[in-house]
Amino acid sequence: MTRATWSYLVLASGIFYFLEWYETGQTGNAFSLGVNVTVLLLAAALSSLVSGKEREGIQKTKEKVLGDLQAARDRARAIYEMTSTFSTTLNYHHVLDTMLDISMGLGGATQEGARSVGIVLLYQQEGEVSCLGVEAARNLSGRDKHCKLTGTTGVIEQALSSAEPVIVERVRSDPELRQFSALHKCRSVICIPLRAGFEIYGVVILGSPRAGAYTPEHMEFLTAFCNQTVVALQNAQLYHSLREEKEKIIDAEGEARKKLARDLHDGPTQSVAAIAMRLNYTRLLLEREPERVKEELEKIEALARRTTKEIRTMLFTLRPVILETQGLVVALEQYLKQLEEEAGLAVHLEAPELGDRLNTEIEGVIFSIIEEAVNNAKKYAGARNIWVRLGFENNLFVATVEDDGRGFDVAEVLDSYDQRGSLGLINMRERAELVEGTWTIESAIGQGTKVTLIVPLPEEEI
User: Fold this and answer.
1) Which residues, 6 or more positions from 194, have their beta carbon under 8 angstroms from its beta carbon?
2) Nearest CA to 395 among 457, 352, 460, 453?
3) How many Å from the N-terminal Cα to the C-terminal Cα in the chain?
């Protein structure tokens, strides 16, 4: 029987005894009245004492329930803030910042001069090595922000390999986390992997100055929260990549316009100016030496025909219609034939029948890269011969453009390339990346130049 039950029985007995005494008509006896009132008061006091202890227990239960409700409200608010932010922004830095702010609010506040710490570590490429670098942080020193981790030992390795969050109380004993001085004052740290499916992007490190700040409920919620963050991060990175690709296309178009302007200035414009000068000269000859007019007109005609070929070649390279109707090989044959007639070069094409293994978009990119490489050989190499070779190797398409010109120091040219007016080499590399290909250039002074393009075949053609 509980204390509350006993208190109620005592109080009820006192009241019953008092009522019985009152009904017997003994109210005139002062002593009897005093005894009965005393019994009633003692019963009430005892009942009050026992129920007070019970109320203390009830108060503690109430406080616990209110704490649970507050935690549930905090989690609901975090979910609302998360969905509001993730649905309105495509800036992945904003996504990471919001995730840190919300997550840190769930793991304990400042205590004894220490502050909660939040770190987002994402995989970054350092040359040929992949490492974890700080992408976003809260309450981290400048030195800590430059830390690079391998993620192959300690708590981070455990979280990444198990794909589950890990809680640690002794940060200084962890071989990687101890590199962050800001975590040394944290008495509770949780490491949560950032993953989507089988792909892992990095980890989130949250540190609290309060021991036991992260409970199993925190682990479950933060895991779901970070998984949603990865989805938002993927969307933001995709948008960022699309913007970069758009900027590359705009730059490529701008460079194409500059190239067209240069070619027009150096070729047809000069030729048209020469025609105008010769016509003026012919007009003077007509008055002074009529017998020489015929010879001069023949020169003007030859110059006009050459200019016409130059313009046609330029128009052809912009977007050859024959490329879409008859394919890459025929388009190259026609382009190289026009080039031989215009520049007097010996151009050799070695190409098998390509069939339908390359789609029109890929053929367009390949043609533009080959055209750029051939044009560079014509302008700068001083070559007598140019070889264009096409072929297939396993599941790859391979194209090479080679000349016997003067060659150049590739490293020296690439080091100073940002200071040059033309970006032809960069354009070729970026165009190759558009079709998931690779582009390389080999050259040495006095040994000619070789450009190689490798493009993977579309999966349906493999």
Assistant:
1) 120, 122, 200, 201, 202, 203, 204, 226, 229, 230, 233
2) 457
3) 82
Rounded to whole angstroms, the Cα distance separating 218 from 189 reads: 12
The answer to whether the beta carbons of residues 183 and 209 sit under 8 Å apart is no
Average pLDDT estimate for 337-356:
83
Q: CB–CB of 203/193 below 8 Å?
A: yes
Checking 434-442 for CB contacts under 8 A at 24+ apart, the result is: 434/365, 435/361, 435/362, 435/365, 435/366, 437/365, 439/369, 441/410, 442/410
What's the CA angle centered on 329, arms 316 and 264, to 5 degrees?
20
Cα(455)–Cα(285) distance, rounded to whole angstroms?
59
Q: What are phi and psi of 100, to 5 degrees?
A: -65, -45
Per-position DSSP letters for 349-368, written without gaps between them: EE----TTSS-HHHHHHHHH
The lowest-confidence range among 99-108, 232-241, 361-370, 383-392 is: 99-108
Does residue 396 sit in helix, strand or coil? strand
Region at 343 (left for phi over 0; alpha for psi -120 to 50; beta for the rest): alpha
Rounded to 5 degrees, what are φ and ψ at 4? Answer: -65, -40
> What pLDDT shows up at residue 349?
92
29-76 pLDDT tens trace: 544 555 555 555 555 555 555 555 566 665 666 566 565 556 556 655
Please determine, for residue 110, whether its predicted confidence score (pLDDT) is greater than 50.
no
Cα–chain-centroid distance for residue 37?
83
Q: Tokens at residue 249, please? A: 């296309």
Rounded Cα distance between 266 and 260, Å, is 10
Alpha carbon distance 391, 321 (integer Å): 23
- Report how far residue 421's alpha carbon sits from residue 253's, in angstroms, rounded to the nearest whole number: 15
To the nearest 5 percent, what fractions of the chain are helix, strand and coil?
A: 60, 20, 20
Give the number of other CB atoms < 10 A from CB of residue 424.
17
Is residue 95 within 8 A of residue 136, CB to CB? The reply is no
Between the alpha carbon of residue 189 and those of residues 118, 121, 169, 183, 344, the distances in Å are 10, 15, 6, 8, 73
Is-contact 30 63, C-beta < 8 A?
Answer: no
Structure tokens at 302: 């030859």
